[in-house]
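Before any further analysis, backbone shapes were mapped to integers, which produced the following:

***
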Amino acid sequence: MKLRIKGNSLRLRVSPSEMARLLETGRIEETIHFARQEDARLTYALEHAATGEELSIRYRPQEVAVVLSTEGARKWAAGEQVGMSAVLDIGVGQLELLVEKDFACLDRKEGNEDTFPNPNRGKTC
């Protein structure tokens, strides 16, 4: 799973194998360590839950989890929908969330392992 943070936006990109694990287990996660100290880390996760909200976020110290509704996650995984997005009012502004399928790059062959087929493959500009 890839994480991108820019300003007040957060984007996760999910591979096919990660999507399968998410649906099977309910959660996928990655942890980045910034230093030797135990608390110098950040875990980012994607979960699905039987919730009324299509897309939400949960923050705890050293962890941020994006939570999809179970129904939304299943529809997204089974269909051609590229991603799910939301703009959340967080009390001190807005947070833009985007969760999307990780597509193969069109301009290179390396790094395309475990990616979704790019819907633009074979098209010309």
Remarks:
- The mean pLDDT is 88.
- The chain has one domain: 2-101.
- Residues 2-101 form a domain with the Gyrase A; domain 2 fold (CATH 3.30.1360).
- Strands lie at 2-6, 9-14, 27-33, 41-49, 55-60, 63-69, 83-89, 94-101.
